[in-house]
């Protein structure tokens, strides 16, 4: 047991040191410090977008958008947040392939995931009417607006993290 604990500790320390080295190499601006007003406004928008939504749904949306945007920083953060909120490992592993694993997700979650994909990849063909209609059938008008706002915010956060070179595993919240 001690050997496994020591190996795990050593592995964790090595990973932490590697992350710190990557961060040290990455000399991009700190958006939160350099654009304080914009950053605070986005935090407010994000908080408003989450209001009234199921926390598990919030994390699923954020995870899926982060997959699509290839944002490791946000993906790491939101999968950890989802685990803390009680999300199962099975469902977390299936988010990226939810269409092939529909039985893991409710109709409401599937509608939100489809809308997340359409809005995140909007340049690929807009938001199809059937995807919007599916979401509108699962959420009342206010909830649908909240879901859309959440999709907008996670896409913005992904772009900030990617543009400023945020490193997965270095979340400072």
TrEMBL record:
<dbReference type="InterPro" id="IPR029032">
    <property type="entry name" value="AhpD-like"/>
</dbReference>
<dbReference type="Pfam" id="PF02627">
    <property type="entry name" value="CMD"/>
</dbReference>
<protein>
    <submittedName>
        <fullName>Carboxymuconolactone decarboxylase family protein</fullName>
    </submittedName>
</protein>
<feature type="domain" description="Carboxymuconolactone decarboxylase-like">
    <location>
        <begin position="38"/>
        <end position="117"/>
    </location>
</feature>
<dbReference type="InterPro" id="IPR003779">
    <property type="entry name" value="CMD-like"/>
</dbReference>
<dbReference type="GO" id="GO:0051920">
    <property type="term" value="F:peroxiredoxin activity"/>
</dbReference>
<dbReference type="InterPro" id="IPR004675">
    <property type="entry name" value="AhpD_core"/>
</dbReference>
């Amino acid at each position: 047991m001690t050997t496994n604990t020591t190996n795990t500790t050593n592995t964790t320390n090595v990973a932490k040191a590697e992350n710190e080295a990557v961060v040290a190499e990455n000399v991009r601006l700190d958006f939160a410090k350099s654009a304080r007003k914009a950053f605070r406004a986005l935090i407010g928008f994000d908080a408003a977008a989450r209001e009234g939504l199921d926390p598990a749904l919030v994390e699923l949306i954020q995870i899926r958008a982060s997959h699509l945007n290839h944002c490791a920083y946000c993906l790491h953060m939101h999968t950890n947040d989802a685990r803390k909120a009680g999300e199962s490992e099975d469902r977390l592993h299936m988010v990226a392939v939810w269409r092939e694993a529909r039985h893991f997700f409710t109709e409401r979650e599937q509608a939100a995931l489809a809308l997340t994909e359409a809005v995140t990849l909007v340049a690929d063909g807009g938001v199809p009417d059937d995807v919007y209609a599916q979401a509108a059938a699962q959420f009342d008008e206010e909830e649908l607006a909240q879901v859309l706002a959440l999709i907008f915010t996670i896409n913005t956060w992904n772009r900030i993290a990617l543009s400023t070179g945020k490193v997965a595993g270095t979340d400072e919240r």
